[in-house]
Amino acid sequence: MTQDIFGQDTSLSSAATQARWDAAQMGVLAHSAATADHLGAVLAATPDFAQAQAIKGLSVLMLGRSELVPMAQEALSDAKLGYEAALPRERKYVDALAAWLAGRPSQAVVLMEQILDVDPCDALAMKLSHGIRFILGDCTGMRASVERVMPAYAPDHAARGYLLGCHSFALEETGSYEKAGIAGRQALWMAPDDAWGLHSVAHVHEMTGNAAQGLEWLTGREEAWAHCNNFRYHVWWHKALMHLDLGQIDQALMLYDTEVRKDKTDDYRDISNATSLLMRLELEGVQVGNRWEELSELCANRTEDGSLIFADLHYLLALAGHNRQAETRRLVSRIHADAKARNTEAQERMATPGCDAANGLEAFGDGNYAQAFSHLSRARSTLQLAGGSHAQRDVFERMTIDAGLRAGEFDAVEVILDDRRAKRAGGEDNYALARRSLIAQARSTPDPHSVPAE
Predict the structure, then answer these.
(1) What is the rounded CA–CA span in Å between residue 297 and residue 324?
(2) Are 344 and 105 spatial neighbours (Cβ–Cβ below 8 Å)?
(3) In angstroms, rounded to a whole number, what is the distance separating the alpha carbons of residues 349 and 313?
(4) What is the pLDDT averaged over residues 427-438?
(5) Residue 53 and residue 56: Cα distance in Å, rounded?
(6) Phi and psi dihedrals of 341, rounded to 5?
(7) Torsion sign across C-alpha atoms 344, 345, 346, 351
(8) Which residues pair with 3 in a beta bridge?
(9) Other C-beta atoms within 10 Å of 254: how many?
(10) What's the pLDDT score for residue 451?
């Protein structure tokens, strides 16, 4: 038996393997591209280390790809071979993997919280609870989880900075923007490679309409996310959004080409970055050229996946309205079929908010803006359940607003704009200000249902 970098007992006996396990755990916290190599080394040396097998399986499930489920199932089988020799805390990780594979990721969260009940300084459990809750859209749970373990983390705890980064993000997602900015800056000071904390501060600037300050925050801090796995594309996405809000279209497109889609993967997180940025650009009247083509081709191959409604909705962004009507209909139909089954939590989210959101996106692509506004408006109250962040889901909010404008639903759109402003602590970005101006112009014209061209 050894102790890990967080002071937790482990069932490992080799100091060398323990060092690689520590590196893997720290890699998870830092979103490091080297994490997989460290985890692979641990499993090569001790394939019966149940916790590492469980982390492999959980990490695979977080990728949201149905074809990788057999790999997670294999990891669970391997983990069970070492289950009896594992410590009680380590077994909880295996149980969490089994729960998610059974279609209940929320039960995996419960098991992580049970670990934290006994070992609050288990930073890996803290991060996994945070990450799975993020996928499930549980921002209040993210905040409560982090805040209940914070007193246990001494200033010299190896994960203290990363804990603060998680706290910052949870604060931001629950609307405490000033506190989130302070916590995120402190996180990066304590852990210079805490890309999650750095990106949380970027979220604060996004949500308070301070794009110029956001660019100032990110510029010169590239080393804080250069080490990351594909999470680095997401940080570049934030920077591109800030350029877009400032009307700096060339810079936004440059970042799309050189960073956001530097590697043209079909990872749903990379797809969501790309599709949501292109849609935002198109809503501003920007011609994005042939950039949709490679995305729609990739997304056409993901119509039957069904792992996450968040992923499916972003696949729809690339399909609807871009000459992929057959694939659009196939994906929307599959979402409705999953919604009827409701055998898993993923399928429950296909039902709510999935069906209305999917119908709305399809209608938007078809140019049926009144129908799009009707469906997307109904989806708004439950869209949080799709997971992701407020900033990520804002592309659907923008499409709802623009559909309403094109349908002449000015009063209803103003209600949404007011609600959006309230959720942003009274701040408004240039997108919202431009839409309010469009409404004012439309109301001053003889035809009250005409929206001035941008």
Answers:
(1) 9
(2) no
(3) 11
(4) 96
(5) 5
(6) -70, -50
(7) positive
(8) 9
(9) 14
(10) 57
For the cut 50, the answer to whether the pLDDT of residue 270 exceeds it is yes
The whole-number average pLDDT for the span 96-110 is: 98
**Longest pairwise C-alpha distance within the chain:** 80
CA distances to 172, 177, 184, 231, 242 from 180, in Å: 5, 5, 6, 20, 19
Closest CA to 391 of 175, 101, 113, 186: 175
Closest to 304 measured CA to CA, from 73, 66, 62: 66
pLDDT class of 446 with cuts at 50, 70, 90: low
Global pTM reads 0.95
Closest by Cα among 451, 338, 317 to 394? 317
With contact defined as beta carbons under 8 Å apart, do 383 and 393 qualify?
Answer: yes
Of the candidates 92, 91, 56, 89, the one whose C-alpha atom is nearest the C-alpha of residue 74 is: 56
Q: What is the Cα Rg of the chain in Å?
A: 22
124-138 residue pLDDT tens: 999 999 999 999 999
> What SS3 string covers the chain?
CEECCCCCEECCCCHHHHHHHHHHHHHHHHCECCHHHHHHHHHHHCCCCHHHHHHHHHHHHCCCCHHHHHHHHHHHHHHHHCCCCCCHHHHHHHHHHHHHHCCCHHHHHHHHHHHHHHCCCCHHHHHHHHHHHHHHCCHHHHHHHHHHHHHHCCCCCCCHHHHHHHHHHHHHHCCCHHHHHHHHHHHHHHCCCCHHHHHHHHHHHHHCCCHHHHHHHHCCCCHHHHCECCHHHHHHHHHHHHHHHCCCHHHHHHHHHHHHCCCCCCCHHHHHHHHHHHHHHHHCCCCCCCHHHHHHHHHHCCCCCCCCHHHHHHHHHHHCCCCCHHHHHHHHHHHHHHHHHCCCHHHHHHHHHHHHHHHHHHHHHHCCHHHHHHHHHHHHHHHHHHCCCHHHHHHHHHHHHHHHHHCCCHHHHHHHHHHHHHHCCCCCCHHHHHHHHHHHHHHCCCCCCCCCCC
Residue with tokens 């977080």, as numbered in its chain: 62
Q: Region 57-67: what's the mean pLDDT?
A: 97
- Residue 409 is encoded by which pair of tokens? 């639903």
228, β-bridge pairs: 32
Contact yes or no for 360/372 (Cβ under 8 A):
yes
Overall average pLDDT of the 305-326 stretch: 95
With beta carbons less than 8 A apart as the criterion, state whether 46 and 17 touch.
yes
What is the arithmetic mean of pLDDT over 19-46?
98
